[in-house]
Amino acid sequence: MIVKRTKLNFWERLYLPAVIAGFRVTIRHFFKKKVTMQYPEEKWKVPEGYRGAPYLVKDPEGRTKCVSCQLCEFICPPKAIRITPPGPVADPAVGNVEKAPHEFKIDMLRCIFCGLCQEVCPEEAIFLMKDYSLTGLTRQEMVYDKTKLLAMGGIHDDQIWKWKHK
Amino acid sequence: MVWFHNLSVTEQFLLVSAIKIVCVFCVVMPAVAYSVLAERKISAMIQDRVGPNRVGPGGLWQPLADGIKTFLKEDFVPAHVRKAYFWLAPMVSMTPALLVLAVIPFGSNLGGEHMVIADLNVGILYTFGIVSLGVYGIVLAGYASNSKYPFLGGIRSSAQMISYEIAMGMSVIPVFLIVGDLNLSKVIEYQYQHCWLVFKAPVSFVIFVIAAFAETNRLPFDLPESEQELVGGYHTEYSSMKFALFFMGEYANMIAASAMMVTLFLGGWTLPIGGLNGPADSILMGVAHLVIFMAKVAVLMGLFIWVRWMWPRFRYDQLMDLGWRRFLPLSLVNILATALVLWMVA
What we know:
The complex is a heterodimer. Chain A is an alpha+beta fold. Chain A has a domain at about 55-155: Alpha-Beta Plaits (2-Layer Sandwich). Chain A has helices at about 10-15, 15-30, 70-75, 115-120, 145-155; strands at about 55, 80-85, 105, 125-130, 145. Chain A has a three-stranded antiparallel sheet. The N and C termini of chain A lie far apart (about 80 Å). In chain B, helix 2 (about 10-45) packs parallel to helix 13, helix 4 (about 85-100) packs antiparallel against helix 5 and helix 4 (about 85-100) packs parallel to helix 12 (about 240-265). Chain B is mainly α. Chain B has one domain (about 75-345). Chain B is built from 14 helices and two strands. In chain B, strands 1-2 form a two-stranded antiparallel sheet. Helices cover about 70% and strands about 0% of the residues of chain B. Classes of the chains: A alpha+beta, B mainly alpha. The interface of A and B includes residues 19, 22, 32, 34 and 35 of A.
């Protein structure tokens, strides 16, 4: 196939058609609806299945679901999770519930939000939630401890009442 | 006012001039700051964005924030620059723009006082003399920075500004052929007695506008700056207030060029409706003339800004081709044609 290469005619070489076309484009966009989102006031809707910050959850009776198996700690690729198990002395307050972690820390600066901890957890105790804007003034502040993780995670409404009859 | 009349004529003149200078300065500097805001807002609108809107209602105090920021920034001087010229260049680029404003009549009169700082008989020659100094700021910056991109910017700028200055100078000759005077106040007088010169010398106006774009280094002629290929061109090595001076110089130049266009072609402070077409006989009318002048300048500033976000930059050879091979002959023909018509009519 031969493509015909026409030369620009006088009118086109005057630069004026381009000027007018450019003006039409800019004026159209000038009055168009703006796409900017006023971020801190307006926020985008987080889709289902979004992998945000990992938090610990409680069961509907308010117990910590985590049993300190440390699978998440071992699988965590950036080694962001550090768990301190309770040791041999059981806390009488939690009765039969075994091995609720003594301390559970996630360094949110190391976390890569991969979701492997959630995938590996046998107790469904850790979930990646919808928080995407984690801020702090110091590095220490960005290491979330057990209290904070549980508070942020809230109660998980699961159907298996594992500890109810124990 | 008794003490004022007790002063000698020279003292009165000095005092009044000083007041005018301060007033003009106090209007032009905020105008420069707010043209930057207007530029940012208009560019944002054209690009479907919102633009600065955090400082004050609708971003109204943004220029203030920008000013504070540039003052507080570290004024970094690279080790490889030529110090004296490096310091000199921003000043040289800012000053001519402000000096041009001295001869522009920005209003008719206010309480019997002519609203022009220096009513020079050779106003336009003075303007062209001063405007051509503007190039030195950029060339000096390019030379003083002692690195390749600013150097390229400086070279481009010298070639560009010199070639467009000729077309610009040639384009206003028909205006003075028609008016018969070099004094800018007389040019305005002619315009309210007859008609705006844009209708009598449209070719001159077109050439002057385009040359003004080239003189002020605005797109589509911003080759000295060339953000993309020259990483900022002549002001690459500058920071803090020195950079801000270049920046303000550019906008002050735009204001000066707009004021020149308004004065030469668009009737200056006059408006052919509502009895505003002549020297003011009351304070209110004098103020109205000031407002009209500023509104006209603002419209042209809008044009300057809008064009920047509309058209791409010329290639360097196209720029030179346009200047030397199109506009120079065109303006010469224009002079000849105007002279012939005037000769036939007379």
